[in-house]
Specification:
The chain is mainly alpha-helical. The two termini are 33 Å apart.
Length: 231
């Protein structure tokens, strides 16, 4: 365990570091919902002293990543259907806006990059045919690039932060149907065509429909897992 830093700035940095590391462990699914947490275990696991750890835990609680349970201590907060729906609702609006903005300013070079991402994705889908969908990489780069092209830095930070990480953790836990993965790829292709045409209205509409379809598929996958008694 590390020694308590004498410099206040070092203390702040230690708190920020452990906040990031525990948060990522939760968002990536390394620490699953419901996992019991203790200060002793976390301090040893992340190599940090108690004071910055406690600050980090308070901030994680504010962000609703962990929760305190009477007589049971702390645990990773469950990510229920309502939270998933709310995150998708936010994502639908923000990604639609990103597409609308990107359609008006996208360059030929950026179009080539988007097409290259989708071409690589098509290759991955062909090579992984028949494997567990949960093990396939998500198409984060495609969505991330559109957010960057939009030119709105605040929008980009929101989309590439906790919203996407929360949902990506769900994709790794629940198996979507292979059919949905293929359909999603086709939806991405149509979004690119709308961006290339400079049609912001259509690009936004197609992205919002894509996000809604993804939400429905994930909801169905979670329901199947619950019926089958899978974690």
């Amino acid at each position: 365990m590390s020694i308590e830093p004498a410099n206040p700035q070092e203390h702040v940095s230690a708190s920020e570091r452990v906040l990031e590391r525990i948060g990522q462990s939760i968002l990536t699914g390394e620490l699953l919902p419901g996992t019991r947490l203790t200060e002793t275990d976390l301090a040893q696991r992340f190599g940090v002293s108690r004071a910055p750890l406690r600050e980090a835990l308070l901030r994680l609680e504010e962000r609703q990543l962990i929760e305190r349970v009477p007589f049971s201590g702390m645990r990773v907060a469950p990510l229920g259907p309502r939270t998933i729906d709310e995150l998708y609702e936010i994502r639908e609006v923000l990604e639609g806006l990103a597409c609308r903005r990107a359609a008006t300013i996208i360059t030929p070079e950026q179009m080539d990059q988007l097409r290259a991402i989708l071409s690589e994705r098509a290759s991955v889908l062909r090579e992984s045919r028949g494997t567990d969908v949960r093990q396939q990489p998500t198409i984060h780069d495609f969505h991330k690039m559109i957010a960057a092209i939009s030119g709105n830095r605040a929008l980009e930070r929101l989309l590439n932060g906790e919203i996407w990480n929360y949902l990506r953790a769900q994709y790794r836990r629940f198996a979507r149907s292979p059919e949905r993965v293929d359909v999603g790829h086709g939806e991405h292709m149509r979004i690119v065509e709308a961006l290339e045409a400079g049609d912001g209205d259509l690009a936004e509409l197609l992205m919002r429909r894509h996000v809604v379809a993804s939400r429905r598929e994930l909801t169905a996958a979670r329901a199947r897992a619950e019926r089958e008694g899978k974690p």
